[in-house]
From TrEMBL, chains A, B:
Gene symbol of the encoding locus: kynU
Residues the entry annotates as binding pyridoxal 5'-phosphate: 96-97, 124-127, 193, 196, 236, 266, 292
A Pfam family that the UniProt record links to this protein: KYNU_C
Enzyme class name: hydrolase
Protein known as: Kynureninase
Subunit details: Homodimer.
Keywords for the protein's UniProt record, in alphabetical order: Hydrolase, Pyridine nucleotide biosynthesis, Pyridoxal phosphate
Listed cofactors: pyridoxal 5'-phosphate
Gene source species: Nonomuraea fuscirosea
Length: 421, 421
């Protein structure tokens, strides 16, 4: 496909107007939206409001009058449709790592007779590290718990299974529905990490998509119910809520009355301002709130949710598959493809392998095409359908091929490692 | 003391120029800086930079080039002098509740043969709630741990003691040094919550004040060492870092190599970007970092630290004691004093009791004097010496006396409770 054909696809793209919602530096093709999303054009003004009109002018009154106190729930309700959840099922705050700790600890308490956590050694490291810290804590330093790798595919005695829907390195996408059913059939609970899927595709934590509270209620209760028990994810990748934006935690309504929030801070209390002596959990999803929300970071999330409310996720997924397929086609066999070749089996990223991946990526960034590198040898390219177009993909692939053909990456300047890769 | 005398004190106040560093709404005397500090005048521009010049222009490169990755440590080092700590002893991030969880869990792991946590039922609720959640988690739902109230004053079998230096309700200040020595003599570790002292007075986690790394090293190692083992606190009260600003965690250097961060997220790893399979803690204070810092919320902390670097805490404490004493004198016996009468025994707040405290406070706020209310009957007034002056105190006391004398609080409009008190 040549560049004119790509421009024609951009012209007929139903999402094309959304690109104007984002600020992107001149001369940059930004293919790292799977790591940190771009700045929405509306965000600076929302931040100014939060700082000057809310904090500056309302001071402590902002807790009542600017909606700060309810931000974890109001943003949770707005985010819920992006993962196939309904109102009262998602709370926002803290970080993905902390949400994983809450979810896995709660799941273990719901399966007190089991001592196995199935995870993936090759899952995003923080998922695995958090499980290691939790099991050390629970075991009093002893091996009372076993962390078993998914590769063994044995769920039969597992308390909880923790998996990512889309793998951060390869972009491979798992079938949430079948694996959830498999875990449930074995009596295990499942926690899905949605960091690399939310905002890139239709996500379906409830198993059948969320079709309103009444339908969901009717559909619940069976042991073979296919929905996730817990899900977590971040908002700073495809959702574009800014560096270090708060994470989200989904808790299936079946578990909300029985699951415990082990990080039982005062914002999860039934009456935080009664200042009672003992923790008494709030009803519903609020019990999973921990403590004072990072209000200024929430403001940027609110700004980007204004955009997402106008986005059709089916269009996002269709464009995402088209963009990643186009990139793979244009790169051809110049590099080994690490991601699945079938677009339905991958997320919105393409991972390629090169033994000198680090300097290749540095050379590419120097020419305005921004991807990132994951040790030891993977080049990652994320395609955020809201602001990346077909011509961008064409130009990125062309530049990559030039860097490889002319061996531009051999410039010694590209060998120096930066702290964050 | 009449208003002219107060104006004279303001004119000779060595901190008077600092008031211009803050934005305060016209007609408001803001005595809630002990809950949420005022907006520094320089903060909006720093926030704009973080949003537009860092995130917007540098995108994911901000992790390397805007210093985001090291923010938890760089802000920790800048904050350290405010609590009598040195470089490499403080990490910033998350919330106070989460830092308490980390500190108490780490302390329990350092005292594996003990099962008692001494806390206070009347401590700020989240401290107590977090301990309850942690002990439930560790006990597997059983009472393997005992949370004993400080009132019993029995430390002899305690693993860890968790106390606030300044009580959030009464403003009473504890003697950190003697209680720390008492806990240590009993073989317990101690975690100090500094939320209501940092930025209001000289805080001294190291027991003798921090006098440089070499002096501190020489002073360490004895069983009777008087320094805190861990300390936590927030930055949104007297430090003025904004609503939901990140918290801090101090870990004594003696414990840094042995204490475990049970929230072992990837940012506490020795090499986060090596993506190793197993958690391997970083050297030093970095192991207590958890995960992606809330970058936009950190920016507001950085702005206010620019101010604090020019502030003499001895002057802050002297003015704080003078302001609170003046307020108490002016109110006289119109209301029962809940705070200690001796200024050396209280923080920078004055708590007064009134059976109809809620409508009294609402009436006062309606007249431009902002304090807050803590159930069931306490009126709290916080005096932030950086932006509150003697004439402000005079005017606030005069307004309070008028509200009481004329029973202005009986207006039914003031009875309606807001969500956040």
């Amino acid at each position: 496909m040549d560049r004119d054909q790509c421009l024609a696809l951009d012209a007929s793209d139903p999402l094309r107007a959304l690109k104007d919602e984002f600020v992107l530096p001149d001369g940059v093709i930004y293919l790292v939206g799977n790591s940190l999303g771009a700045l929405p054009r509306r965000t600076p003004e929302r931040m100014r409001q939060a700082v000057e009109d809310e904090w500056g002018a309302q001071l402590v009154g902002g807790w009542n009058h600017a909606g700060w106190y309810d931000q974890p729930l109001t943003t949770g309700d707005r985010l819920a449709p992006l993962i196939g959840a309904g109102p009262g099922q998602v709370v926002v705050g803290n970080t993905t790592s902390i949400a994983i700790f809450q979810a896995v600890a709660a799941a273990l308490r719901l399966r007190p007779d089991r001592r196995v956590i199935v995870s993936e050694v090759r899952n995003f490291p923080t998922d695995h590290y958090i499980v290691q810290g939790l099991t050390r804590l629970l075991g009093g330093g002893q091996d009372r718990y076993e962390v078993r790798d998914l590769a063994e595919r044995r769920f039969e005695d597992a308390a909880v299974v923790l998996l990512s829907e889309v793998d951060y390195r390869t972009g491979a996408r798992r079938d949430m529905r079948s694996i959830t059913a498999e875990a449930h059939a074995a009596g295990a609970l499942i926690v899905w990490d949605l960091c690399h899927s939310v905002g890139a595709m239709e996500v379906n934590v409830s198993g059948d998509g969320f079709a309103g509270a009444a339908a969901a209620e009717a559909d619940r209760g069976g042991a073979d119910f296919a929905g996730a028990d817990f899900a977590v994810g971040c908002t700073y990748k495809y959702l574009n809520a800014g560096p270090g934006a708060p994470a989200f935690l989904y808790v299936d309504p079946r578990h909300q009355a029985t699951a415990e929030n082990v990080l039982s801070g005062w914002h999860g209390h039934a009456e935080p301002f009664a200042f009672e002596e003992d923790f008494r959990p709030a009803e519903g999803i609020r019990r999973f709130a921990v403590s004072t929300p990072h209000v200024l970071s929430f403001a940027a999330l609110e700004a980007t949710l204004d955009i997402w409310e106008r986005v059709d996720l089916a269009q996002v997924r269709a464009k995402s598959m088209a963009l990643t397929s186009l990139f793979i086609d244009l790169v051809g066999d110049a590099l080994e493809l690490v991601s699945p070749a079938d677009p339905t089996e991958r997320g919105s990223q393409v991972s390629l392998r090169h033994p000198d991946g680090y300097p290749v990526m540095r050379a590419l960034i120097d020419r305005g095409v921004h991807g990132d590198f994951r040790a030891p040898d993977i080049l990652r390219f994320g395609f955020a359908p809201l602001y990346i177009g077909y011509a961008d993909v064409h130009d990125a692939a062309t530049t990559l091929l030039e860097v490889l053909d002319k061996e531009l990456w051999r410039d010694p300047a590209y060998a120096t490692r930066l702290a964050v890769t």
